[in-house]
Design a protein that fits this description.
The protein folds into three domains: 179 residues, no CATH class; 136 residues, Sec63 N-terminal domain-like fold, CATH 1.10.3380; 53 residues. It is flat, with a radius of gyration of 23 Å. It is of the alpha+beta class and 406 residues long. It holds the Pfam family Sec63. It comes from Metarhizium anisopliae BRIP 53293. One of its GO terms (molecular function) is 3'-5' DNA helicase activity. This is SEC63 domain-containing protein.
Length: 406
C-alpha cells in the first residue's frame, strides 16, 4: 500500500473507494475547487460492471460475491460478520473432528454475542465462532488437544487475512449502493477485528501493551476507562494503580503519546452557503428529486493534536472520513495517510443536503478506539448540521468524532 496515497469519494465516486492503493497524491483543494456530490443512479448494467470490478479487485469468487451482495440495507454487526463468513474461500478451512468440541463449547458456554442455533459442522461456523472468541479476549476454552490447537493457530492467520478482504469488499459493495449506515457498520466490524476487541465493549485498555484483564479492572475501579484518560494520568499513579515499579509509568506514557488524537473543524463557507443546482425548467423531469436540494459548500479541516505524527503499534495509522446523511445515505468518503494531517488536511466539499438535515461525520484512525465531543455548527436559517467524530480503533478504515456542544 502506498503510504502517500489518499482516497476521496462522493456519492458519485465511492465505486472507487479503494483506489488509494494505486492512486497518486491529490492536490489540496481550495475554495475555488469544490467537489460536489452529484446523485448517482446506476443502471443494472453499470451496477453489474462495478460489482465485477470490485470482485476483480479483491479476487473473490462469484459465489462469494453473490453472498455479499445479498446483504440487506443498513445491516447490523451480526449480519455483516455472518455474510462475510459465508465466503466460499473459507471452505478451505473445514471443521475438523479434533476441533468440534472446542467450537461447541465456544457456541454454548461462552459470552460471545452471536451464537449459532444449528449443529456446528460448517466451515463458516468455524470462522464465525473463532472471530468472536478472539474478540472476547478470554482465550480459547480448554477443549482441544495441543496438536489441534497448534494447527488451528497456523490456520488463524490465513483466516483473518481472508476475512479482511471480504470485509473490505463488502464496504465497496455498500458504498456503491450509497448505504452510509452499512458502510459505517462494516467499518466498525473491520476495526474490531483488526484491533482485537469489540467496538464499544469497554475493553479499549486491552489495546495497550502490558495491560491485561486484571490490570484493566484495577484501572476501571479507579475511574480510568479509556486510553485518553490513562494518558492524562500521572506516571506515579499509574505505577501505584498497576503495582509496577519505575520506569513503567514513564515508558507507558511514552507509548500513549503516539495514540492518535484527532480534531476536526467543520464550517459553512458563508458566501456560497446555498447554490441552485439546476434550472428547474430544464431539469425538472430528467433530474432525480435529490438534485433539487440546496448545495452547501463546506470546509472540513482534519488534524491531530499529538506533538508528533501519531504512531501506534509501530505504525502510522490511516484515517478515514465518512459522511452519512440523515436518512443513512453515503454523502462523502475520504481516506488518506495520517501523514497528510501533519499541519492539517483541508477538504472543500459541495454537499447536497436538505434544510435541517443532520449528518454524521465519522473519521477513523487505525489502531485507536475512543470518543469525545467537539463543536456543532449552526447554519443560517437556524438549520443545523450535527457532526459526529469519534476516534476509533482500526487497522484499515475510519476515525470518528461527535458533534453537538454539551
Amino acid at each position: 500500500m502506498n503510504p502517500d496515497a489518499e482516497t476521496c469519494a462522493s456519492s458519485s465516486t465511492h465505486a472507487n473507494m479503494n483506489r488509494h492503493k494505486k492512486s497518486t497524491p491529490e492536490p489540496r483543494p481550495s475554495t475555488q475547487s469544490v467537489r460536489t456530490t452529484e446523485p448517482v443512479h446506476f443502471s443494472t448494467e453499470d451496477m453489474e460492471s462495478n460489482i465485477h470490478e470490485v470482485q476483480l479487485r479483491y479476487k473473490l469468487s462469484s459465489v462469494t460475491m453473490k453472498a455479499l451482495c445479498s446483504i440487506s440495507q443498513a445491516p447490523d454487526r451480526r449480519q455483516v460478520l455472518y455474510k462475510s463468513c459465508l465466503a466460499s474461500e473459507f471452505r478451505s478451512f473445514p471443521l475438523k473432528q479434533a476441533e468440534k468440541n472446542l467450537f461447541r463449547e465456544i457456541n454454548d458456554h461462552t459470552a460471545i454475542p452471536y451464537t449459532i442455533k444449528e449443529a456446528i459442522t460448517q466451515p463458516w461456523h468455524k470462522v464465525f465462532l473463532l472471530i468472536q472468541i478472539d474478540l472476547l479476549r478470554t482465550g480459547w476454552p480448554n477443549k482441544i488437544s495441543g496438536a489441534a490447537r497448534k494447527e488451528l493457530y497456523q490456520e488463524r492467520g490465513r483466516i483473518y487475512a481472508l476475512l479482511d478482504r471480504t470485509l473490505r469488499c463488502l464496504t465497496d459493495i455498500l458504498g456503491l449502493r450509497r448505504d452510509g449506515r452499512g458502510v459505517n457498520v462494516v467499518l466498525d466490524v473491520l476495526r474490531s477485528v483488526k484491533s482485537g476487541v469489540w467496538e464499544g465493549a469497554g475493553q479499549e485498555l486491552l489495546l495497550v501493551d502490558g495491560i491485561g484483564s486484571v490490570k484493566m479492572e484495577k484501572l476501571y475501579r479507579s475511574g480510568i476507562k479509556s486510553i485518553h484518560q490513562l494518558a492524562q494520568t500521572d506516571f506515579c499513579n499509574i505505577e501505584r494503580l498497576m503495582s509496577r515499579n519505575p520506569p513503567f509509568g514513564h515508558n507507558l506514557l511514552q507509548q500513549l503519546a503516539g495514540f492518535p488524537k484527532l480534531c476536526c473543524q467543520f464550517d459553512i463557507i458563508k458566501d456560497y452557503a446555498l447554490v441552485d443546482r439546476f434550472p428547474r425548467g430544464d431539469h425538472q423531469h430528467d433530474q432525480p428529486e435529490m438534485s433539487q436540494s440546496p448545495l452547501w459548500v463546506c470546509r472540513v479541516v482534519l488534524a491531530y493534536e499529538n506533538d508528533q505524527v501519531p504512531l501506534w503499534n509501530k505504525n502510522n495509522p490511516w484515517v478515514t472520513l465518512v459522511m452519512e446523511g440523515g436518512d443513512g445515505r453515503l454523502v462523502w468518503f475520504w481516506r488518506g495517510s495520517v501523514n497528510k494531517l501533519a499541519e492539517h488536511k483541508q477538504l472543500i466539499l459541495g454537499l447536497e443536503l436538505k434544510r435541517g438535515e443532520k449528518i454524521g461525520l465519522r473519521g477513523i484512525y487505525s489502531h485507536t478506539s475512543d470518543g469525545h465531543k467537539i463543536c456543532s455548527k449552526r447554519l443560517r436559517d437556524r438549520d443545523e448540521i450535527v457532526l459526529r467524530l469519534i476516534q476509533a480503533n482500526v487497522n484499515h478504515f475510519r476515525c470518528i468524532k461527535t458533534g453537538g456542544e454539551g
